Amino acid sequence: MGKESKPQAVGQDLRDFAMRDAQGAVRLAVAFIGVSGGLFGHLNRLRGARAEELAAAAGRDAAYVRRWCDAAYAFELLDEADGTFRLTALGRAFMPESPGTLMPFAVQDVLSAHMAERAAGLMTSGERPGEVVLAERATILPWFGPMLEAQFGPVFEKTIMPALKVYEEAALREGLAVDLGCGNGWYLLRLAARFPQLRCLGVDGFEENIRQAQTRAEALGLGGRVQFRTGDIYSFENPEKADIIALNRALHHVWDEKERVFGILKNHLKPKGSAVIWEPHWPLERHILRQPTHRMMAFQNLTEHIQGNHFLMPAEIADAFSQVGLTPAIYSFLEGREAVVTGTLA
Ligand SMILES: C[S@@+](CC[C@H](N)C(=O)[O-])C[C@H]1O[C@@H](n2cnc3c(N)ncnc32)[C@H](O)[C@@H]1O
Fold it and tell me: Which of 57, 285, 301, 341 is most solvent-facing, going by the fewest CB within 10 Å?
């Protein structure tokens, strides 16, 4: 038996390291309050305002907004002169409307704190309560869809859509694209905008997602071609077979019954149709997780564990396609962090 090592005094270098991390996390927490309360957007529209004016415009409590302005000023999200607050360039970057917005970092930060607290408590019993844990924070919930859209919408449009032939081929056949676990519908709305010949159907188990998706389809004038409905992936049925069935960050939610899910995919594809599965690429070797590009994935997989899920390796998905007689192909994106695996019916 080795001796326990005696605790050493923590050095200043480690203290400074932790301090920088702590300030970064709190800056994101302050930004989250601004995002959630619509404070960045209102301040931008007002071109600067006193805390009371900002509170009135955003419909928030003036005393809270005054304290938030102080915190946002301290963390350089706001500047101030004569009691009037204005967005700094950094503050403006957190506006959800800004192209390339930093909003997902703020949402992710507060969600991480929530999930960390739940993991710490659940670790005693080993209980895995499922996706309900995500819905426990009323202010975070409405930001899931926008967060995922801001993170992955641009890469889908600029990188994935042009790299995969399946979309164009489906459009040439004036086909049907289905998205199972479609969230707020961002994927199908982009696909429908790019390919006017495609018809689209999105299904999600969460009614709020479907409401947001349908509203947006109608606002974009796509309501005739793009439909969304509430439903369970496990019991998906549709009278018309599909040219594309996409699952984006949804397969790991239903992997525990993968035989059933892959059977559904095969049975709902037209000949030459493809299932297109986009998942985080869980690496084969642990050391990859330490790369700054990958380390968030390791924490997210812990939060998936709470929900009863785990991230997948592309080879596992390809194997599941082969098992049901679909021909697999693996594509890698974003420095190997994201994988798209297609399975095509002969
Ligand atoms: C991580 S989110 C991804 C959402 C969306 N595909 C995106 O990329 O933004 C997973 C989605 O799958 C949905 N989902 C999970 N299990 C489901 C099931 N059995 N039936 C229907 N939807 C499900 C959830 O409601 C959630 O919207």
Answer: 285
